[in-house]
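Table S2 (continued). Query chain:
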Amino acid sequence: MMASATVMRALTALKEGRFVLVYDADGREEETDMVIASEFVSSGAVRAMRRDAGGLVCTTADPRIRESLGLPFLAEVFMGMADRYPVMKELMPNDIPYDVKSAFSITINHRKTFTGITDDDRAMTIKEFAELSRNAIQQEDGWGKREFGKGFRAPGHVHLLNTTDRILETRFGHTELSTALVIMAGLVPSATVCEMMGDDGKALRKTSARAYADKHGLVYLEGAEVVTAWREFQHKG
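Corresponding output:
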């Protein structure tokens, strides 16, 4: 089965540095994220996510990036601190209502940023992270880890998200969905995402997210469409 026309339009949009909207699934988070390829993030893109989405601006890392840079899952870091700080054991995310494991890794700022939170600063951090990732996954002998430390500090204002080892096999969150899209588009395997929030204190309704996509000429995708396209992509690979 070929990827749907909608998925193909989304891949084209991502390659052109534009946003796409991705809804995960009914019965899961039931949220729509604004998604853009990390390598194309600009100050304007961060501003659009902050203004029009309103959730947390996060940047994903596929398993190759995670391995090359040595990115931990934050929950595992916290567990490693539990002997010294027993409260960390009590705070373990073992009751997430929509999934079995948190994707969160560390937070970072690029060392050339000032506070790290401005649109300009976050855009710099994300673009430089994508560029480092592009190079790191092609290097060996710990190059990526060394360069990561030279260029970035933690904690910071950009939240990193790690995909699962086998993308879209056991976890079907926006971390995996968005990363699968940029991989299929032939881009650096990192996406930057932000949840779309409504004015009622809840996630933006699916109908409202679709209306936003129509108004702004953006592709709107259901998670199931991405999963189908990804499985076909993997089969061909």
